[in-house]
Amino acid sequence: MDTTAPDSGTTSAGLPADTDAAVRIRGLRKAYGDVVAVDGIDLDIARGETFALLGPNGAGKSTTVEILEGYRLRSAGEVSVLGIDPAHGDLDWKARLGIVLQSATESGVYTVREQLTHLAGFYPDPRDVDEVIAAVGLVAKARTRVSKLSGGQRRRVDVALGIIGRPELLFLDEPTTGFDPEARREFWKLIRGLKAEGTTILLTTHYLDEAAQLGDRAGIILGGRLLDVGLVDELGGASARVPIVRWRESDGTPHEARTERPAEFVASVVARHGGEPDALEVIRPSLEDIYLQLVHSAGAEAHDDEEALA
């Protein structure tokens, strides 16, 4: 498994030749007593890359991200974020980060514009407040107190607060929770615009289509370990992306087969049945299919290991 950023001049063993990666992690471990939340992660994220960190609840995503943000101390390993150990990051380093936490802001004293204007004053080169308000689709709510906004609108305020300082590295933790489908797609446009400006983005999301739309690469974490890391359209390897042909026999029995030549296989099925059988379809595995396959496979292997040791 190659966990390093593409085109970074890394070795086959994953050793970094590019020490100027936006995020560099080696042997990251975090334990709470006997409970290990993160267990030996190695990962590089290149500058300007959008990296999606995926995994079920409790997999170690939030702990990993909080260590990178400087909110949580690690138990072992080496970590560099924008060239600085986050355990010792000062205010200048923090000003280079944008952070959108998973929970929505509860601040209700200020209006949207007032809150953004206040925060912008802490940064050396902030974005224009009105441009940010427009970018997150809150022009009509600019003079509304945050406490009067809907959950989805408060989430947009969180995103606005995360990007107002023109960050070099933006952390997005479940950023579109509470967004309707149209709002999610508008948000995707905003993220693509930030990427075009050179912003490095670390995204955690349960929406696999979001990771596929926005991510250059993705990593799947389970039990505190990275199961796989790669380009979004190559994750899981070639075998995981072989198309599946499904159909149902006349007696109702379902069938499926994997084949690298689905058109030829479908033609043979149709010829054998003297016509198109019921429920005939060709499925090309999506990122969600591959994600579920990797997670379920890893879970089954862990269960087998536990039984072997029992």
Walk me through the topology.
Elements: E1 23-32, E2 35-45, E3 50-54, H1 61-69, E4 76-81, H2 91-94, E5 97-100, H3 112-120, H4 129-135, H5 151-163, E6 169-173, H6 181-196, E7 200-204, H7 208-214, E8 217-222, E9 225-231, E10 244-248, E11 254-258, H8 262-273, E12 278-283, H9 287-309
Parallel strand pairs: 3-7, 3-8, 5-6, 6-7
Antiparallel strand pairs: 1-2, 1-4, 8-9, 10-11, 10-12
Task: Explain what this protein looks like in three dimensions.
The chain has helices at residues 61-69, 91-94, 112-120, 129-135, 151-163, 181-196, 208-214, 262-273, 287-309; strands at 23-32, 35-45, 50-54, 76-81, 97-100, 169-173, 200-204, 217-222, 225-231, 244-248, 254-258, 278-283. The protein has 310 residues and is an alpha/beta fold. It has 2 domains: 23-230, P-loop containing nucleotide triphosphate hydrolases (Rossmann fold, 3-Layer(aba) Sandwich); 238-309, no CATH class. Strands 5-6-7-3-8-9 form a 6-stranded mixed β-sheet, sandwiched between helices. Strands 2-1-4 form a 3-stranded antiparallel β-sheet, covered by helices on one side. It has a 3-stranded antiparallel β-sheet with strand order 11-10-12, with helices on one face. The longest helix is centred in the last third of the chain and has 23 residues, at 287-309.
